[in-house]
Amino acid sequence: MLDNKQNGFDYDVAVVGGGPAGSTAATLLAQYGHQVLLLESGRHPRFHIGESMLPFSEPVIQRLGIDWSAGNLSKSGAVFIDEATEQRMFFPLAINRKTYQIERGPFDQMLFENAGKHGVETHQDEKVLEVSCQPAGVDIVSDKGQYRCRYLIDATGRSALMGRKDKAIKRIENLGKFAVYTHFQNIQPGEEADELFSSGNIYVPVVDIGWIWIIPLAGRRLSVGLVVQKERPKDCDAEELLRRYLEASPILSRLLKGAEQFAPVRVEADFSYTNQSRYGARYACCGDAAGFLDPVFSSGVFLAFTSAARIADRAHLGLTDGREADPALHAEDDEKYLLGFNTMRLFVERFYQSNIVHNLFFEADRDPDLKAQIAQLLAGDLWVDDNKLQQSLLAGRRGVS
């Protein structure tokens, strides 16, 4: 390794953003022996939506050396439901690998603190104001200091620091428009509720305006949200819209009877996009800073973990070989990222545009191979050569980037 101080650098790598992607990239680079600075504009624990994890995140979790089972609910699979027709289909996900329904505040804090345990210098409540990636190094100005580093990793989530700086954010128009959600506690005992918490399954009821998530959390709590794909009715705001759909759902009417709402109703808009400038000379973007998808298949944290690990591994090689200024350093890995991202993107597009739930999911019991292929994608097993459904999705939409 270079002596940073003698060469005018404060750190090998600065990672901006202390969510799952940033904490993962920082930890893995520190494990390789690099000097890493992790800058987080907020403070942990902080609320974040996205509680349902995918099983194929497990290899990265193992590399990080954390126990994600502690205090979390084991997740068996996903149940897609049409309450109007009483159709439902269960896809087992935790066959080869385990996964969990987690509470993001404590989970993200654990990941951030784990980075510190591996030698990363972690700063909270420090907002990056300006970055400049030059041929000779990266200069960073925050509201608390200035730093010079050999490499920058943008893990700023949907703030997408580098993508917005380069005007490279491209909205994906045909997926969900916004989500409105809240949390409930003290879910009362009963056969349906007990089965939900025992299995840890995520329930996905499809509705005329989009879809609903029902995610069981430890302590008999539920995360419940509505993703709206069509235009919102003119006669109500987002909170009233959520209330209408919760009351109209027989399942939720039963589950929420006697329960208490313990979190405010929140709304998230400007959903899906891709960053057309995911890497360049001395920088790379991971997680939501590289792209964000409608959360129907729970791909957010999974793509954060896998993209961060891939970028950390390649950045390590670049730093070791003195090639970190090569603008094409991540070109090969970006193809793998796009394979995963576009598989999920096209899967979500089919969910909305071709009624995939009714035409494919609810018919899957008739074709065990098809059901296994769907479950494989829902579990995050995306980098394979033999999934015919994945091949069909990708063949139908060449040139997505």
TrEMBL record:
<dbReference type="InterPro" id="IPR006905">
    <property type="entry name" value="Flavin_halogenase"/>
</dbReference>
<dbReference type="GO" id="GO:0004497">
    <property type="term" value="F:monooxygenase activity"/>
</dbReference>
<protein>
    <submittedName>
        <fullName>Pyridine nucleotide-disulfide oxidoreductase</fullName>
    </submittedName>
</protein>
<dbReference type="Pfam" id="PF04820">
    <property type="entry name" value="Trp_halogenase"/>
</dbReference>
<dbReference type="InterPro" id="IPR036188">
    <property type="entry name" value="FAD/NAD-bd_sf"/>
</dbReference>
<dbReference type="InterPro" id="IPR050816">
    <property type="entry name" value="Flavin-dep_Halogenase_NPB"/>
</dbReference>
